[in-house]
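User: Could you check the structure of this?
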Amino acid sequence: MKSVAMVIAEKNFRDEEYQRPKEVLEKAGIKVVTISTTISTVSGKLGLKVTPDLLLDQVNINDFDALIFIGGGGAEQYFDDSKAIKLAQEAAGKNKICGAICIAPVILANAGLLNHKKATVFQSEISKIKEKGAHYTNKKVVVDGHLVTANGPEAAEDFGEAILKLLT
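Assistant: Sure, the predicted structure tokens are below.
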């Protein structure tokens, strides 16, 4: 069974950016494990309550086929988080699928994964991914090799579908 590590912030992750891709993946038989910096209940921007399954520093990337960072304002907590960046680099180094939605592609950019890659991001963060060498594409969802980026909540379902397509 394929499995996906989905990283959410302790607060203010975007509910639909978490829920919709998770539903798409689980409906297809993919196991989704929710990761955060706490295993206490966390809250989305719109009030969704989620209890993460695993702590970020406990993730063994070998146990997963994909690593996904969920957006929303809270995702900023991972922009310069050494564990999140190292995990993204490790996943990419093992040819795992790496994805990020909304502002979260900045995490992939800071990990060096978007250099010379096509990517999208929420409008407010375009300059941050360009500074790290990304070729910004004004699309809802962009797939470049094993990288999937999406620009916000409206893209959540398509983001999930793009990840599923790469997994299967």
